[in-house]
Amino acid sequence: MASNFLVTTAIPAPGLQLLRDAGRVTVLPEPPDYGTLAALCASGEFDVVVTQLRDVIDAPLLADARVRGVSNFAVGYNNIDVDAATRHGIMVGNTPGVLTDATADIAMLLILGTARRVVEADRLVRDGQFHGWEPELLLGRDVSGAVLGLAGFGRIARATARRALGFGMEVLFSPRPPGDRAVSDDELGEFAGKVRQVRWEELVKRSDFLSMHVPLTDQTRHLVDADVLRRMKPDAILINTARGPVVHETALVEALRTGLIAGAGLDVFEDEPRLAPGLAELPNTVLLPHVGSATVPVRNEMARLSALNAMAIAEGRMPPNAVNPLVCA
Ligand code: GLV
């Protein structure tokens, strides 16, 4: 029998085409609210639901769901209660690997953009305030020679390290903040001798740019809170391309306002798409609408991977990228 796929938000054509070739595809006309999505998942009409980060797939929804699997159009899957899915025998797939470089590019862009005040500079030109070269117009910071602290040392952090080393930055990392874990030279591979592991407390104190590269978990929620912001250098800049709730956004606004730290470059927010009050008014920020993976080839590849995951799950096969492979074992 042909498989039935529910796609909560249209994904790029290469993925949709694969799904259409494999079965019946229902693409919702607009992102569903929680109740609508729960009812659709419980209807028994669909084998697999292809979800977005904004779709909350929690334990109550999964308890009533009559689907074989959830294929998330993202590498992160904090929107899905994976333990509950596993308990109910529901497979979860994601799209790792293909967005590493694109997201590291955005981390580097935020480092450069905050250091060189690109938003303020752009606004000044558009506002007709550029009156010619001036010796002290919009002076920024040097990136070369500055200390980049990477919170986390997974794929995207390593790709960011590679870029930062090319820009002459000194790269420190803390692999599993706030806890600790020793990374051997073997594990460091190409980075051995080029980057240095430090404890989270030291990373916070020493970074000129502190960049978040951790998944959102109970341990990393509000990893950067008022206390951490107080311990950063007053001229430090916070970069977040990971997940918004890793940073206590209200505390960040306060820290930026009072000069506890110098700036922030953010691609993710605590309660997307909303921003903490006051954040948008701060000049010392660069704010992006969660576009880490937003290039045409990367989004096409994510669409393809999420479709391949969905098709495998619908046929009872192990998906190419399974988050909870034991369900299929
Ligand atoms: C984007 O944030 C992703 O997890 O793919």
Characteristics:
Rossmann fold, 12 helices, alpha/beta, 7-stranded parallel beta sheet, 329 residues, 2 domains, binds glyoxylic acid, single chain, 5-stranded parallel beta sheet
CATH-defined topology of the largest domain = Rossmann fold
Q: Determine the strand fraction and express it as a percent band.
A: 5-15%
Shape descriptor reads globular
Cα-to-Cα separation, first versus last residue: 23 Å
Rg measurement, Å: 21 Å
Count of discrete alpha- or pi-helical segments spanning 4 or more residues: 12
Mean pLDDT: 97
Helix and strand sequence: EHEHEHEHEHHEHEHEHEHEHEEH
Proportion of helical residues: 25-40%
Please write the CATH class name of the largest domain. Alpha Beta
Structural write-up:
The protein is an alpha/beta fold and 329 residues long. It has 2 domains: 3-98 and 296-328, Rossmann fold, CATH 3.40.50.720; 100-287, NAD(P)-binding Rossmann-like Domain (Rossmann fold). Helix content is 35%, strand content 15%. It has a 7-stranded parallel β-sheet, with helices on both faces. It has a 5-stranded parallel β-sheet with strand order 2-1-3-4-5. Strand 10, helix 11 and strand 11 (263-266) form a beta-alpha-beta unit. Helix 1 runs parallel beside helix 12 (296-314) and helix 5 (100-115) packs across helix 7 (155-166). The model has no long low-confidence stretch (mean pLDDT 97). The structure holds glyoxylic acid. Residues 74-76, 99, 292-293 line the site of glyoxylic acid. Glyoxylic acid (GLV) is lined by residues 74-76, 99, 292-293.
